[in-house]
Amino acid sequence: MADCTPMIPADMSASELELNEFVKHSELGARHLKSGPASQLPTLRRILHRSLHDKAHIYLVDLEVEMSPPNLYLPLIDLSSTDRASTAQSIRKACMDHGFFYVINHGIDDFIVKSLFRESMKFFDLPLSEKMKLERSKDHRGYTAPYSETLDTSSKFKGDLKESFYVGPINDSLNQWPSKESLPAWKVTMESYYEKILNVGFRLISLISIALNLDENFFTKIGALDSPMGFLRLLHYPGEIPESDKGKYGASAHSDYGMITLLVTDGMPGLQICREKDRSPQLWEGVDHVERALIVNIGDIMERWTNCTFRSTLHRVVAVGQERYSAAFFLDPNYDCVVECLETCCSETSPPRFPPIKSGDYLEERLRLTYSQ
Ligand SMILES: O=C(O)CCC(=O)C(=O)O
Ligand SMILES: [Fe+2]
Fold first, then answer.
1. In a 10 Å sphere around its CB, with 0-12 CB exposed, 13-18 middle and 19+ buried, how is residue 9 labelled?
2. Atom of ligand 1 at shortest distance to CA of 287?
3. What is the CATH number assigned to the segment(s) 71-371?
4. Are 165 and 123 in contact (CB under 8 A)?
5. What angle do CA 273, 275, 276 make, to 5 degrees?
């Protein structure tokens, strides 16, 4: 994509002709030219009038956001269906094609999700000094401030814009909680949502087992879910961002580390996925909001287990100028669980691509890299 840089008119007063030339020659532009160049010109002109000389990256991010293709409508899985075999088949296809899908009729009442967001907003509204009193512990519970994490470990732009709060397994005593005086309903709201989303996670894992031609209780039987590392992560993305932060991401490109992630958002756009990470230039597609649906995606551990039959898809959250709240639930195996290629996912012609690894070792290493930027 760097090939776009020399095409940027330096005088910042591009004529229609120059703009057309630019669109024609940049790869992104060429793709969009087909879908109506005339409508893109005002956007291009606005972007080109910004200071561009040493900000090619920022320019490209803006261009990608504003010119990204129509949003993706991911496969929809109805969790209330009694035809488990057919649901499992649909999940299999979704995990092979996208690594992402929506889940509807999951059984979590809307008022529980609304309470979750209400309490999440109350916490992020607290002064930074208050939030920092609950800063993320070595057990990964608590608050992470804006810029403290860079999910894209290869990026030269350090510090994602989001702030977050991690709640770990609720039956141990390692979690940190805001005081009852400041947020009386916080802990009970988080615990209630945690319990419900964990249950949906278990139901999905069972369907995923069937989708992989395994016993429906396979992951329970091998002990992967004896005391699963389920982490609820509340996220808050800023609306207005200062000029100095332009070019940064809400959450930079990454794949999730564990088995599956179950996401709820407040409906604001921003989430994008890249289905082919090795394609150049990468194609980022926005994920549509579906009212009351969860967005579920496959993580790296599941990709390893399935020998890449199921994809752990690259995704990110771009800044869209509006505040955004979401809550991701990462369902990961016990730390002592050995993750090795499933029998149903390898053959003589498709041997295991990854050596066996202890889930805890893998997850800890990924977290270390994320926070050592
Ligand atoms: O906020 C979102 O929509 C996605 C968050 C995410 O990808 C993550 O925390 O891993
Ligand atoms: Fe993620």
1. middle
2. 3
3. 2.60.120.330
4. yes
5. 130
- Structure confidence at residue 322 (pLDDT): 93
Cβ–ligand 1 contact at 315 (below 6 Å): yes
- What is the C-alpha to C-alpha distance for residues 277 and 284, in angstroms, rounded to an integer? 10
Q: Is the CB of 328 under 6 A from ligand 1?
A: yes
Token pair, residue 348, equals 């003589």
Residue 278 is predicted with a pLDDT of: 83
Q: What is the per-residue burial (b if ≥16 Cβ within 10 Å, else e) of 260-281?
A: bbbbbbbebbbbbbbbeeeeee
Q: Count CB neighbours of 233 within 10 A.
A: 19
- Location of each CATH 2.60.120.330 domain in the chain: 71-371
Enter the tokens of residue 81: 């269906």
CB 97 within 8 A of CB 75: yes
Ligand 1 pocket test, candidate residues 260, 265, 317, most atoms within 8 A of CB? 317
Is 219 within 8 Å of 258 (Cβ atoms)?
no
- 204 pLDDT band (50/70/90 cuts)? very high
